[in-house]
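Chapter review: from sequence to fold.
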Amino acid sequence: MLASSIVLGVIAGIGFGGDWQRLTRLKFRGIPIVFASGLIRLGGVFWGLPLALYVLVLCSLVVVAFLNRRLPGAFLLGAGIAMNLIAILANGGMPISPEAAGIAGLELPADGLHHPMTEATRVQALVDVIPVPLFRNVYSAGDVVLAVGGFWLPFAALRR
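The token string follows.
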């Protein structure tokens, strides 16, 4: 969801008269941390990862958002990541609504991070409960905030 929102932000920014060259001058800090976090997260998709490593990745990305706090959308990126982190820490992983997964046509993931939502799930407003059948996925409020920030950063940077 984040990657597609960034791409949409770039397309919309250019479509609304933005200058592609502005992205090349964007001073984004922490790029090595973002790439390392992405590789670790990708590894989790294929091999699963310990929960502590997921938490470390999210904490490092909150730090990157803070380092870039002056960029448009960076606050939303950090807030979305923090919302997901709260849900994960409160529940020992990210609960996913079985009902929402069914609506989205998604089998419940078995990746060391996700587990089925139950009545005992804490901070239910922050867990994966938003079905998106088009993408066969279920998202959280944090994912939505993260996607808005991912759209806004390149869109605003291109339009400045």
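Two observations follow directly from the output. The chain has one domain: 2-14+50-159. Residues 2-14+50-159 form one domain.
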